[in-house]
Design brief:
The strands form 2 sheets. This protein has an 8-stranded antiparallel β-barrel. It has a two-stranded antiparallel sheet with strand order 2-11. It has one helix at residues 2-11, and strands spanning 19-28, 33-36, 40-41, 47-55, 60-65, 67-74, 78-93, 99-113, 123-135, 140-150, 164-167, 170-179. The chain has 1 helix and 12 strands.
Length: 180
C-alpha cells in the first residue's frame, strides 16, 4: 500500500497540464531520396505519427515523436520501403497566452526497411525546429518547420559512376501537431 501511495505521489506533478499526447503529421519540403541517372525518387509526400510532450518549468519542454514515412525509387519498376524517425527534442516556449512561439533542438534516430538492393544503415541526425503553439480550450495546435542534418546517408549504391541513389543528408519538413 505504501508503494502505491508513493507512486501516486511521484506521478502527481505529471498531471494533464504537464503531459500532452497527440498526433503529428505533415509533408516534407524535400525528398528523402537522392537519385540520378536511371533512378528517380518516388517517396510519399506525407509524414505521420504519435507525439508526446512533457512541460517543464520556465517555458521548457521535452518532446518525443515516432514519425513514419514511405520512401522509394523508380528504375524499371517501383520499389518502396519504410522510414521511421524518432526525434527527441528539447524545446523552449516563449512567453504568451493564446499563441506561444517555440524553438526546438535535439537528436533524430532513423530506421529504414524494405528498400531493395540498398544497404540499410540506421541513422542519427541533429534537429532544429521552430513553430507556434496555439492553446485552445481542449486541444493544442502546433505548426512548425523542422530541419534534420543526418550524420551519414541512410543507404547508397555500391557503384555511383553513372547512376546514383541514396538518402539525402538534409531533410526539411512542415509539421502540424495536435495534442490534448
Amino acid at each position: 500500500m505504501r508503494t502505491l501511495l508513493f507512486a501516486l505521489f511521484l506521478t502527481a506533478p505529471l498531471s494533464a497540464q504537464l503531459l500532452h499526447f497527440g498526433l503529428k503529421g505533415g509533408f516534407p519540403l524535400n525528398d528523402a531520396i537522392d537519385a540520378g541517372g536511371s533512378f528517380h525518387a518516388a517517396s510519399a509526400n506525407w509524414t505521420i505519427g504519435p507525439t508526446a510532450e512533457i512541460r517543464l518549468p520556465l517555458g521548457f519542454a521535452v518532446e518525443a515523436d515516432a514519425l513514419y514515412r514511405r520512401i522509394g525509387y523508380d528504375v524499371s519498376d517501383s520499389f518502396r520501403g519504410s522510414a521511421w524517425m524518432f526525434p527527441i527534442l528539447a524545446k523552449y516556449h516563449f512567453p504568451g497566452s493564446l499563441a506561444r512561439m517555440y524553438v526546438a533542438s535535439g537528436v533524430n534516430l532513423r530506421a529504414t526497411t524494405g528498400v531493395p538492393i540498398l544497404r540499410e544503415v540506421p541513422g542519427k541526425g541533429f534537429v532544429l525546429g521552430a513553430g507556434i503553439r496555439y492553446d485552445l480550450k481542449l486541444i493544442k495546435i502546433s505548426p512548425e518547420l523542422r530541419w534534420t542534418r543526418w550524420g551519414e546517408a541512410g543507404f547508397t549504391l555500391p557503384n555511383p559512376a553513372t547512376d546514383f541513389l541514396g538518402t539525402k543528408r538534409n531533410q526539411a519538413e512542415f509539421l502540424i501537431g495536435i495534442s490534448f
